[in-house]
Amino acid sequence: MSHKKAGGSTQNGRDSVAKRLGVKLFAGQVVRPGGIIIRQRGTEYFPGHNTGMGRDHTIYSLVDGKVKFVEKALKKYDNRVFKDTIVNVEPVGVK
């Protein structure tokens, strides 16, 4: 016969896997076509010249070049001003 009360169960003990979001290539770094520059949820950064945006808001390069970030002040319809960060890729010549 047991002399200890059975241990209870718990509903805790889980955690979700990290999604590895964020900036993958910083300003001045070289990127190839199709190379991922930023992984994000929503549009914290916006695609600019020579970049595209995937279905999950991933920003990627369309050409060989160097990454460049630009802050642009945009005025909303009610005259509020916001700064949006735009990601560009400046093409480099073929070696």
Describe the structure.
- With 95 residues, the chain is mainly beta.
- The protein has a single domain (22-91), classed as RNA polymerase II/Efflux pump adaptor protein, barrel-sandwich hybrid domain (OB fold (Dihydrolipoamide Acetyltransferase, E2P), Beta Barrel).
- The protein is 0% helix and 41% strand.
- It has a four-stranded antiparallel β-sheet, with no helix packed on it. A four-stranded mixed β-sheet has the order 2-7-8-4, with no helix packed on it.
- The protein is elongated, with a radius of gyration of 22 Å.
- 13% of the residues are buried.
- The mean pLDDT is 93.
* CATH superfamily placement: RNA polymerase II/Efflux pump adaptor protein, barrel-sandwich hybrid domain
In the CATH hierarchy, the architecture is Beta Barrel
- CATH class categorisation: Mainly Beta
Largest sheet, order of strands side by side?
Answer: 1-3-6-5
Sheet with the most strands, sense and barrel status: 4 strands, antiparallel
Count of discrete alpha- or pi-helical segments spanning 4 or more residues: 0
Order of helices and strands: EEEEEEEE
Q: Number of DSSP strands?
A: 8
Q: Averaged pLDDT, please?
A: 93
Question: Could you tell me how far the N terminus lies from the C terminus, measured between alpha carbons in angstroms?
Answer: 81 Å
Shape: elongated
Fill in the CATH topology.
OB fold (Dihydrolipoamide Acetyltransferase, E2P)
- Give the amount of beta strand, in percent: 35-45%
> What is the helix fraction of residues, given as a range?
under 10%
Number of domains: 1
Rg, Å, rounded: 22 Å
Low-confidence stretches: none
Q: Kindly name the structural category.
A: mainly beta
